[in-house]
Design a protein that fits this description.
alpha/beta; seven-stranded parallel sheet; 13 helices
């Protein structure tokens, strides 16, 4: 919560945690706490939970709140906490966001409402309404059109940023790099922008991005954090080397639907008690595991 009044300090590698489940499908809070400690020990600059990698749509509101409270308690204000609190309905979004605020979140990451495919005017009103409910909580837009079937336009982002005081930034998860540039151009350099696309995290820094909320930090948190630090230290060669070294792990994440491959790796490493995902996802198939193992071998030094 100590970063809430200074959201510009939420920079670097913000690790978007998976949500561990037991073999029976229950929340595994002890594994979740262990993952937070590992991320902190590995040098991650912040923690997120409840984005796409965290399977929020497969959880009840009560489960999401419990997980957020658990992570906030374990972080204990050591680094910024930026949980995903959005949902397909306004009622659920407000409930989870209120709980995150009360738990001490530094900002709330609000996904564009999925499935409904709202217009740009509807998106503006959606975010303005949520922000008005939490005037003292920084709000970060979460744009991930591959998951939601709606893409918030750069013009809408700029309109929100200029007219709503506590809308401070956006997590852009689109492979259209021109979109990143237009968002920054239209909103100005004060807008906080993080990349949710693993292979665009480093390039975004050159445009003025503040860091990345990259799923690959679940597997190689130290390497992802070092990549950011190398860039900010002016060591572009090291930053580029790490960017390219992470390619096999990025490919691994998406052999089958994220986060199933990452959970399998974390379970193999003993970091979580089960590789379970919730329906409609499934654990990796045998063909998927063959690919995952091969890609893991290529990046073994980064995941130890």
């Amino acid at each position: 919560m100590k970063f809430r009044s200074e959201p510009h300090r939420i920079t670097g590698s913000i690790a978007p945690l998976i949500t561990p489940f037991s073999d029976d499908g229950d929340l595994d809070l002890e594994s979740l706490r262990a993952l937070v400690r590992w991320q902190l020990d590995s040098g991650s600059h912040g923690i997120s939970l409840g984005g796409s990698t965290g399977e929020p749509a497969a959880q009840t509101v009560a489960e999401r709140i419990t997980a957020i409270e658990t992570v906030a308690e374990e972080i204990a204000d050591d680094v910024p906490f930026l949980p995903g609190t959005g949902a397909a309905t306004l009622e659920a979004t407000l409930e989870v966001t209120a709980a995150a605020r009360d738990a001490g979140a530094d900002a709330a990451l609000i996904i564009t409402p999925y499935y409904a495919r709202p217009t740009q005017e509807a998106l503006y009103r959606w975010y303005a309404t949520i922000a008005a409910e939490f005037p003292d909580l920084p709000i970060v837009i979460y744009n991930v059109p591959s998951r939601t079937a709606v893409d918030i336009a750069p013009e809408t982002v700029a309109r929100l940023f200029r007219s709503v005081d506590n809308i401070v930034g956006i997590k852009e998860t689109t492979t259209d790099f021109a979109h990143f540039s237009r968002v920054l151009h239209q909103s100005g350099p004060e807008l906080l922008v993080w990349s949710g696309i693993e292979l665009l995290g480093l390039p975004l820094l050159a445009l003025g991005g503040r860091g990345f909320i990259s799923a690959v930090a679940n597997l190689a948190p130290a390497a992802v954090a070092r990549m950011y630090e190398a860039w900010t230290d002016g060591d572009q060669d090291t930053a580029r080397e790490l960017h390219h070294a992470l390619h096999p792990l990025v490919d691994l994440l998406f052999v089958e639907t994220n986060p199933a491959p990452a959970k399998w790796v974390l379970h193999q490493q003993g970091r979580i008690t089960s590789a379970a995902v919730r329906p409609p996802l499934i654990t990796p198939t045998e063909n998927g595991l063959t690919q995952i193992r091969a890609l893991l071998d290529q990046s073994a030094d980064l995941v130890r």
